[in-house]
Amino acid sequence: MPTSATKRELQAVLEIDGRASLQGEVKISGAKNSALVLMAGAILGSGDCRLHNVPNLVDITRMGQILTALGLKVRQHGDTVDIDTRNINPTKAPYDIVSQLRASFFVIGPLLTRLGTARVPLPGGCAIGARPVDLHVRGLQAMGANVRIESGIVHANLTGGKRRLQGANIYLDYPSVGATETILMAATLAEGETKIENAAQEPEIVDLANFCCQMGAKIKGAGTNTIIISGVDRLKAIEYNVIPDRIEAGTFLVAGAITKSEITLSSVIPSHLAPVIAKLNEIGCKVEVANDNNGSYLSQSLKPQRLRLIPGELRGIDIETLPYPGFPTDMQAQFTALLSIAEGNSVISETVFENRLNHVAELQRMGANIRVKGNHALVSGVPFLSGAPVMATDLRASAALVIAGLAANGKTVVGGLHHLDRGYENLEGKLQQLGAKLRRVLPD
Known about the structure:
Elements lengths: L3 H7 L2 E5 L6 E4 L4 H10 L3 E2 L1 E5 L5 H12 L3 E5 L2 E5 L10 H4 L9 H8 L1 E5 L12 H9 L2 E6 L2 E6 L10 E3 L5 H12 L4 E5 L5 H13 L2 E3 L5 E5 L4 E2 L2 E3 L4 H13 L4 E6 L5 H10 L2 E4 L15 E6 L7 E3 L11 H8 L5 E5 L9 H7 L3 E5 L2 E5 L8 E3 L3 H13 L3 E5 L1 H7 L3 H7 L3 E5 L3
Parallel strand pairs: 2-16, 3-14, 4-15, 10-11, 19-20, 23-24
Antiparallel strand pairs: 1-24, 1-25, 4-6, 5-6, 7-9, 8-9, 11-13, 12-13, 16-18, 17-18, 20-22, 21-22
Helix pairs in contact: 2-3, 2-8, 5-7, 6-7, 7-8, 9-11, 9-13, 11-13, 13-14
């Protein structure tokens, strides 16, 4: 049961005084979606794994609790997480935590391929639509696992006296990031070669593959739609740096654009943001690499760099969310807020998740002129938004409402901050550093 202190924290709100100009530089944290899967991937190698550039988030804490319940020793200090994987109990993933964190399901692949058995409750997370685990399950079954779901628990084990999963050719009906990651991790210790076709191509997939390769895995093609994994007998624990969070970076770029502020982001991999930057340029802003004479963001360098957002007059555009390298669904809500005050009309089409336009009603409370038709948001830009009490419905919606509040006239009060805390490390502190006027307020 939640403690009284926890209940009080859940009732906290963010009060935002709008129309403040932003300026300065902000450091982008490590990628939540990468760190979570790397923490699960640490199970693959026996020994002490150390991850750097890990964001301090509720979801990271929950994943640490799940690994601890499995018998691992987890310690987080600053942005470093140490994981001792020598002792594992594959049947103790706790439902109460797993039900709050979809990424918890990532442990099933590493557990199964290293120990031959896994027992994991069906996962939870943001209520933004159906995210079934059937692609994960079918991939593991193709590799020779017996997988069954009973009373909300996924049971997986090897069959026929086999001690290892078997390499297989696996075609994904949809380029699911989670399924690609689950199958990739399971294949690293499988016997023979595994080919994943129609694989997800997100930067987090590449980060996981690089992590596994440093552990001793043999993986080719990560970042393309075909990944080939040649199984090895064992993997070693390593020290590894998590990539920067491209969604946090995109969120701050939109914050600069909506407040007409020039800001700089440090610790960013520009190529990971190519579709976001392209749309910002189309809207009327300019994004350039601050430490590159050519100002190009298309370089495929994985070295973190600095990005500068130069604001401009906003104009309406059309956006369609797609799997990477298309426009990310995780940036749709933020751009909806931005386009609500852009001149002209915009059409935003959400093709990835069916329930990811719930933030529109809250933006309408602030004066936005948006109509929802199926999976499309039809936006007619208004001159300004007005502050209002609003409630976040999911992680990215919470960021969108904060962004809208920065540009609105008057005070905006954002509730549902538990969503925000799942995916943004100290967002209000970083915005305050840039000059935003906002504060977290607990109930009396």
